Amino acid sequence: MAEHEDTTDPKRGATIEDYFEEDRTFPPPEGLAAAALTADRSLFDRADADFEGFWADQARELAWFERFETVLEWDLPFAKWFGGGRLNVSYNCLDRHVEAGLGDRVAYYFEGEPGDTRTITYSELLEEVCKAANALHSLGVERGDRVAIYMPMIPELPVAMLACARIGAAHSVVFGGFSADALRGRIEDAEAKVLITADGGWRRGQPVALKANVDAALSGGAASIEHVLVVRRLGDAAPDTAMTDGRDVWWHDTVDGQPAHCPPEAMESEDLLFILYTSGTTAQPKGIMHTTGGYLTQVAFTHKYVFDIHADTDIYWCAADVGWVTGHSYIVYGPLANAATSVLYEGTLDHPGRDRWWSIIEAYKVSILYCAPTAIRTFMKWGTEHPTAHDLTSLRVLGSVGEPINPEAWIWYWTHIGGSRCPVVDTWWQTETGAIMISPLPGVTTLKPGSATFPLPGISAEVVDDAGVSIDRGGGYLTLSRPWPSMLRGIYGDTERYRETYWSRFEGKYFAGDGAKIDDEGYFWLLGRVDDVMNVSGHRVSTTEVESALVDHPTVAEAAVVGALDATTGQSIIAFVTLISGVEVDAEHGEALRKHVATKIGPIARPKTIIFTDDLPKTRSGKIMRRLLRDVAEGRDLGDTTTLADASVVEELRNRAAAQPGEE
Ligand code: 7RM
Questions:
Q1: CATH homologous superfamily for 30-515?
Q2: What pTM was estimated for this model as a whole?
Q3: Could you tell which of 331, 374, 401 is best to mutate to test the pocket of ligand 1, judged by most ligand atoms within 8 Å of the CB?
Q4: Cis peptide before 607 (omega within 30 of 0)
Q5: In this predicted structure, what is the pLDDT of residue 3?
Q6: Which of 46, 347, 443, 567 has the smallest C-beta neighbourhood within 10 Å, fewest atoms?
Q7: Is 547's C-beta closer than 6 angstroms to any atom of ligand 1?
Q8: Selecting from 3.30.1330.60, 1.10.287.180, 3.40.50.970, 3.30.300.30, what CATH number does the domain 533-659 have?
Q9: Are strands 534-536 and 539-541 parallel, antiparallel or unpaired?
Q10: Distance from the alpha carbon of residue 589 to the mean position of ligand 1, in angstroms
């Protein structure tokens, strides 16, 4: 009898059902815990006892020009943190460290994709930032203005951001891979006055021109832009870079000759620091706003404790792009606020070889690596010979962000990259949260592969049911029930949309849009976006759990699971699967994987169809686009695919899906 006719199943009707069980545990390594910044519950106890006092303590770690008078003013859903306080973010990230005698410490080891390198100390970075700040002034940028930034991952990118922060202009970084249209839309929404860009950047050995996109964006609108400041990154490799008279100026002509001092503006704690656009379910991207004091407080706190930063000895590498929030918070503001030494890498995973990352870790003796599950699963697919060819013993903490990390990918990361010695901190957060919210602390938390473990000190996360009632175990919706310092302050220019998107579904609570479950020991497990949850015969099955069961099979590197319309069961489960290098696809393999899922989590979760593929459609920040896969599975028209990292993947998938037998 088919599962869907069973009405006695206690899970049926649950908000989101939990099937996947993972019982391996990893306590903090002894040596690491002994030297860790925190190895007990004291931060949690302090935050539980006095939540505002706890955040005030963290805020006092920063340098304030004027002390704050209030900690939190909460007028749901509008928060003001550290009212009355004045500070400057670039002063906190630079001057303060130089004044403390750390001027010669390296802020960034820059590694360009072609292999060019630059070492930039805190004193040098401060000088560069002051010059760039003066240059922005000379181009007419004033406190309160907006500046758009559209650049490759080169040192001038953090310099540009910090220069904006120094003079009190808000930046809006637009990822360098976005189109002219996307750039124009974002400039227009924020009414940016100046655009900072480059002639181009390097990708897989090829120069990629950027300035032509800028010209296209500006020719069709974006009239607020008065000047374009252009870094010469490609030089002779971009011989055709056109400069518009009176509008465009070269960075080296405009910045290099400026005075190396520029007084930092004393900003109010709630002044706008930046806008970062995220695309949601609708076409119009949302300009997420972050402000000054609360944002810097929480990114500095989380960066320090989640990665156990010993700034005098660690070499930290966050391999995200600065164009995403991960880069803002954990390449630029968090690490610099903590006087850390970071690697900044321009390029891709596999240029010139599939061991590029591991050669970087070996060369710089990287001790902390922070990256996305999509990268880890790609490395799994490529095999262990690439990391094992390099000395990775400098590593001591590993981080993951952006998607649920499947337990097997976690174990692979732990074993083959971390040498079974480095805690893996799986960090859950969002552009909107500004900073890490749910994550282990490496010296404190006993890890479970695939779980982001617990809310950090000072964070109130709750899983709620359809009615918004908090549940203490099982699956439901992830919410945040108290404000936090680095929370978004709204959507630029659209207060109503802010309220509607985040605060309308559950009264008094922020709804993150993610499903989550809490296990018997209180661990949090992220289950994917709730829009992706599948409904099979009335069972609410999480995409993440089925994907993790597939990746658990020794031949599978990556899997994306979607629910496709089904006349009998409502939805049926379709799995797109990438095998590890060298495994042959044959007719029986699909059946073996379907069985594996049924054994691992139950017959209800058995995929109806398995489609093998070499690649999956991902956003440019590496998240699997399940919505698109659903369209493929249901044979729908795909519409706009420009947000894809590689649009050709979808065509291939469509052909394969069409070749599938209709019934099983
Ligand atoms: C930092 C970032 C946010 C969405 C979020 C989740 C997913 C991020 C994890 C995760 C499971 C994680 N910002 N997500 N981290 N899911 N475990 N550790 O990614 O705004 O681009 O995306 O990403 O769905 O809501 S983001």
A1: ANL, N-terminal domain (3.40.50.12780)
A2: 0.95
A3: 401
A4: no
A5: 44
A6: 567
A7: no
A8: 3.30.300.30
A9: antiparallel
A10: 31
